[in-house]
């Protein structure tokens, strides 16, 4: 590098050192754990979680718990915070509480849940054991887990996030019965299952239903005022004076319009700051907030669609075309199928049968990309189904056009 390419302080001008917008952007990360005084509207719920976990302070088995509620209603946050507070209380009683957080969206098989749990709790200096990444049978992973639990903790709190994504609920039965079946003798286990699906317990197999005694807790969504307070509490992420007056009220109002999702509200605020920063602006304005809302919706939607096959995207594209730009429009399977035949033809793709298209629609419904209702003859009898988008058609279209093949339709 020549001296011309560096500024007076020897810094490379290719990079930016001034940060006019953010003071500490990490505060707006979803994984950031706010302090107990910055949690809004969850006192009652947190105290119910605490009640269930309370026996752990004395080394006894906690009550297992299911927490339900829509996305961004503070389920994971409350479960983690209460568990951490329990951990420090228990320490005063000389009881060692370990906490494991498992994302069942990623670890959805029995073996991967057990392996992840064992490695999160394991302290090789106490157990004298390692948990290998691969190579053991599920039974062997269980054996190591029981030893780890008995040697490394008095009580383990297992938080199973997105529990409805588990492929097999056998793991729930085995974990919840570990003490009773003498798999663990010196320690106890408490399970907190978290899900967006309130009817999840109905999906459990009969074996688990009858054996897994638990309490249930429902978290309501936030209203605009609560979202506003949640965002106000994270204002320190920005430099003083950077946020114009309308920014927080607008970001919270936009997030409240959907279903009061704190994750969305925080995302919008963070993206608004980033867009302002990219533009080289000194302040964040309501225009930045609106642009951020569109961006965060498109990002989230694109995540939902990640890994979806082009045929599914073609089916979804057909639904978008049939809505005529209206999010609330309900379209029959039959209309989607007729549109799909043209789309598949334009894309030079194989044309799937109507039955297969119906199955793809069901998958999209399962992924919460669309909402399907089957009238008359019951599920699987596609012709009577109607389907609608859960996201703005423009956004869905924009995300679909990111697929190189679908983009040829423009
Ligand atoms: N009451 C609250 N006060 C402050 N921040 C909150 C509150 N509730 C949620 N948040 C923040 O919103 C984000 C999403 O919350 P959390 O992950 O707990 O939601 P969730 O209900 O578990 O959602 P999901 O089902 O999508 O996992 C996190 O960054 C969290 O810190």
TrEMBL record:
<dbReference type="InterPro" id="IPR027417">
    <property type="entry name" value="P-loop_NTPase"/>
</dbReference>
<dbReference type="Pfam" id="PF09079">
    <property type="entry name" value="WHD_Cdc6"/>
</dbReference>
<feature type="domain" description="AAA+ ATPase">
    <location>
        <begin position="61"/>
        <end position="223"/>
    </location>
</feature>
<comment type="function">
    <text>Involved in regulation of DNA replication.</text>
</comment>
<dbReference type="InterPro" id="IPR003593">
    <property type="entry name" value="AAA+_ATPase"/>
</dbReference>
<dbReference type="Pfam" id="PF22703">
    <property type="entry name" value="Cdc6_lid"/>
</dbReference>
<dbReference type="InterPro" id="IPR055237">
    <property type="entry name" value="Cdc6_lid"/>
</dbReference>
<dbReference type="InterPro" id="IPR015163">
    <property type="entry name" value="Cdc6_C"/>
</dbReference>
<keyword id="KW-0067">ATP-binding</keyword>
<dbReference type="InterPro" id="IPR036388">
    <property type="entry name" value="WH-like_DNA-bd_sf"/>
</dbReference>
<dbReference type="InterPro" id="IPR050311">
    <property type="entry name" value="ORC1/CDC6"/>
</dbReference>
<dbReference type="GO" id="GO:0006260">
    <property type="term" value="P:DNA replication"/>
</dbReference>
<dbReference type="InterPro" id="IPR014277">
    <property type="entry name" value="Orc1/Cdc6_arc"/>
</dbReference>
<comment type="similarity">
    <text>Belongs to the CDC6/cdc18 family.</text>
</comment>
<keyword id="KW-0235">DNA replication</keyword>
<feature type="binding site">
    <location>
        <begin position="73"/>
        <end position="77"/>
    </location>
    <ligand>
        <name>ATP</name>
    </ligand>
</feature>
<feature type="domain" description="Cdc6 C-terminal">
    <location>
        <begin position="316"/>
        <end position="400"/>
    </location>
</feature>
<keyword id="KW-0547">Nucleotide-binding</keyword>
<feature type="binding site">
    <location>
        <position position="222"/>
    </location>
    <ligand>
        <name>ATP</name>
    </ligand>
</feature>
<protein>
    <recommendedName>
        <fullName>ORC1-type DNA replication protein</fullName>
    </recommendedName>
</protein>
<dbReference type="InterPro" id="IPR036390">
    <property type="entry name" value="WH_DNA-bd_sf"/>
</dbReference>
<dbReference type="InterPro" id="IPR049945">
    <property type="entry name" value="AAA_22"/>
</dbReference>
<feature type="binding site">
    <location>
        <position position="234"/>
    </location>
    <ligand>
        <name>ATP</name>
    </ligand>
</feature>
<dbReference type="GO" id="GO:0005524">
    <property type="term" value="F:ATP binding"/>
</dbReference>
<dbReference type="GO" id="GO:0016887">
    <property type="term" value="F:ATP hydrolysis activity"/>
</dbReference>
<dbReference type="Pfam" id="PF13401">
    <property type="entry name" value="AAA_22"/>
</dbReference>
